[in-house]
Give the backbone structure.
Amino acid sequence: MERTEKIKELRKQSLSLPMQPGVYIMKDSQNNIIYIGKAKALKNRVSQYFGSDTGHSEKVRRMVSQVDRFEYIVTDSEFEALVLECSLIKQYNPKYNILLKDDKGYRYIRISPPPYPKISVALQKPDDGARYLGPYISGYVVKEAVDEANRIFQLPVCNKTFSKAKKERPCLNFYIDRCCAPCSKNIPEGEYNERVEQAIEFLTHGSASLLASLSRQMEEAAENLEFEKAAKLRDRINAIRRLGDKQKVVRSKVADQDVIALARSEKGVFFEIFRFKKGMLYDREDFFVDESGDLEAVRAQFIQRYYSVRDYIPPQITVDGEIEDRELTEQYLSEKAGRKVRIVQPQKGEQAQLVEMCRNNAAERAAQQAGISGRDAAALDELARLLGLNEPPRVIESYDISNTGGTDCVGGMVVFENGRPLKSAYRRFKIKTVIGQDDYASMREVITRRLEEYEAHKGEDSGFGRLPDLILLDGGKGHVAAILPVLREKGYNIPVFGMVKDSHHKTRAISSEGGEIAISGKRSAFTLVSTIQEEVHRFTIEYHRKLRGKSGIGSILTQIEGVGEKRAAVLLKHFGSLKAVKAASIEELANVKGMTRPAAEAVYKYFQENG
C-alpha cells in the first residue's frame, strides 16, 4: 500500500513537469541514480512511468518499483537533451540503462617455451618464460589470426606437452592435415621450429611478406632437387592464398562502415557488430543487453551508448531495422565524429547480405543462450519481426480442419517448440458440435476445446497445460476472424495469424485481421512457416483418413451425440445398411443391443432433421 501511494505521489509530480525537451534522472531511496532518459516533452514521457504498467517491459517495472524520486534538466532542444543524456549516462553508469564497457580488454599472442612451442591467445602477459606479441585491441582479429596460423602451418592446438622421451599415437587432426603431430616424433624439432617461426612471421608481417619468402624457398628447394620440401612449401603457399580468398568473401563495397544487427531471446537482445575498413572486415564485437519491447528504441539506445565510448565512428552505420530518433542520432554521431555520419537500412544487394550475415551471427549468440540451433533462432527472430511480436515465439501451435463433404470432420493441432516439432504435444479433435462442412465453426470448436483443456490442466509444463506464444491457422483472414472472438471472450491475448496457400498448395503469405503479409522475401521465416503448414496439414489429413478407413459410411453415425464407433458398427450390422438405420423407429433403434433410449432418440432426430 505504501508503494502504491508513492507511485501516486510520483505521478502527481510528473504531471507538473513542463512540456519541454530535457533529461530526467531517476533515483532510488539511497539517492543512487538508477536511470537517465531524454524526452521531447518531459511531462508526457515521465508520467508514462507512473501510470498503467500494461505496456511496460519487465525491466521498466523493476526500475519503477525502485524509484523514490526524480530530477530533471530542461534543454533548448531534443538534440541537446540527447547529448546531455549520453554524457550523463557515461558519467554515472545507471544500472537500468544500456551499459557497454569502453573495451573488452587487450589480447596477446603467446608462444610457449621450447621444446615444441605452441601459439595461442592470452588475456594477460605473465612472467612465465613464454614469448608474447601484442597487445592487440581486437580479440576477434587475434583469435582469427592465431587460428589461421595454426591451421596453415599445421601446429598443435591440444593440451599435450611434447617431451623428448614420450611418443604417442597422433590424434585425428594429424590425419586430416591439421597438425604435424610432434607427439608422434615424426617431425624433427628443427623442422617444427621452422614452422613456428614462419607462423610468427605470418602473424607479425602479414601474408604478403611471408608468401614472397616461401616462394623463394620453394624455388631454391626445386633447384636443389629437394622436391619433397618444395611440395610442402607449395602446399603452405596455397593454404595462405586460400585464406586470402576466404577473406574476400566478407568484404564490403562501402570502404569504412559498421554493420549492426540484433537478435532477440527470452532474456534480452543480442547485438552483433561487423567493423569494416578499406572494405575488409577488421573487427567484430557482440553484446547482450537486458532489454525488451520496442526494437526501434532499443536499437537507438544501443547505437548511442556504443559510440559514446568509442573514439572512431565510421562515416556509415548499416543497421537491420528502423531506429527511434534517426535524425537526432545521426546529428549526435556526426558532431562527435567531426564529419557527416549516415545510418542506413539496406533492402537488397550486397549490403543487405552483410546485414543478414551479421543478424545470423547475433542469432547464433541468442541460440547458444536458449540451447537451440542458430538457424532456428534466426528463423524465429525473423518471424517475430515480420509479425510484429515483442519477442521470438518459443511455442507455436498450428491448427487445421479436414473433412470429406462435411463428414468425418476432424481438427489437428501441432506444436513447434524453439522452431522444431514437439510431437508429444500434438493433439487430435473429432468435431462434435458442427454438422456439415463449416471450417470456421469447426475451427472455433477446436480452439474452444483447447482453451478449456488449458483451464483444466493449467500449470502443467507440457501438453495442454501451457499456452502458446503464437497460433498459426491453416487458412486465411476468415479463419483468423473466426477464432479471435473466442480468445478475446476468454481473456487470452495470443497472436493469431493464418497461413495462406497458392494455387499449387504451397505457402504464399501470412494472413492477419488487416490483410496479408508477404513472406516469400523472408527466407528463414518462410521456410519455418512452410514447414509448420505442411506438418499440420499432414497430421490432420492422416487422422481424417484413419477415421474414414476405420468406419467408412459409419462415420456419419459417429457424428451423432451418444454414438461412438462401437455403436455405429452394431447399428450397421443389425440393420444391414445406413438406409435401413435412417428408416428405423426409435423403438427399433432402442432394441438394438448396446443402444440406449437417449442414443436411439438422438439417431432418429438426426436423420429426421438431415434426411
In short: The chain has a mean pLDDT of 85. The CA atoms of residues 259 and 318 lie 5 Å apart. The two ends are 66 Å apart (CA to CA).
